[in-house]
Amino acid sequence: MLGIVSHHECLGHETGALHPDAPERLQAITNRMIASGMDYVLRHYDAPRVARADLERVHDPAYVARVYEMAPGPGEPPVEIDGDTVMSPGTLRAAERAAGAGVLAVDLVMKGEMREVFCAVRPPGHHATRDRAMGFCLFNNIAVAAGHALEVHGLQRVAIVEFDVHHGNGTEDIFRNEPRVLFCSSFQHPFYPFTGHE
Question: Which one from 7, 13, 59, 127 is the annotated catalytic residue?
């Protein structure tokens, strides 16, 4: 069995026309899993909203507070954080579910309920640094999950191995001085965010 953690609120993160991180990305993953005929080996879980304590374990609490303060409410216009990163009225809920998915995935594995778990969520997270949103990312979902594994489940070592066209600069930033975390990133270089070569 493979655990799949997702939530319909992740579709509420509206980024605008022609933005690469569109709700259709998540819908395509879900549709492909159904079309594959593998549904009989999948166990679906709804991602919970992440706890502030989980966010603040890897992000500066002042940064987390700023994200919550700047989030637009229903009917309000989107807030552009930078040229790539935007918050619509549904973004904060989507980001809470995306980060919460990683926490649930860790819990499922650590409790022996699942051996492998895939999180189908958005917005993504690996560019979010300890105190800054960037590159489509508000909260660093994988860092939140790793921090949860270390501090709640007491793991002594965590390895994060990422394959992406972009370097996970945010994840590296968060764990740069954490000896219990091994971070390996395979990415195209030179390419955004132009890090990972030092």
Answer: 127
